[in-house]
Amino acid sequence: MLVCVCNGIREKDFRAAVREGAPTPCTAYARIGHRAKCGQCVPFAKTIIENEQMSN
Ligand code: FES
Whole-model pTM above 0.90? Predict the structure, then answer.
């Protein structure tokens, strides 16, 4: 599943970036080598970050 359609960022790669310590969608995208474009994915990306933080 894609988290960010503009950049083709897969959920698996996004979660890995968050687990490596990226605290926000933008920092996680930067770790993968991308940056937010349209911004539509940001609320979903934030939900995934919260989800990862709760499972720690
Ligand atoms: S869907 Fe992520 S920036 Fe557009």
Answer: yes
**Ligand 1 atom with the shortest distance to the CA of 39:** 3
Give the distance (Å) from ligand 1 centre to CA of residue 4: 5
CATH architecture of 2-54: Orthogonal Bundle (1.10)
CB neighbours of residue 30 within 10 Å:
14
Mean predicted lDDT score pLDDT of the chain: 96
Whether the pLDDT of residue 6 is over 90: the answer is: yes
Rounded to an integer, what distance in angstroms lies between the CA atom of residue 5 and that of residue 10? 9
Distance (angstroms) between ligand 1 centre and the Cα of 46 equals 13
Domain boundaries, the chain: 2-54
Distance 35 CA to ligand 1 centre (A): 9
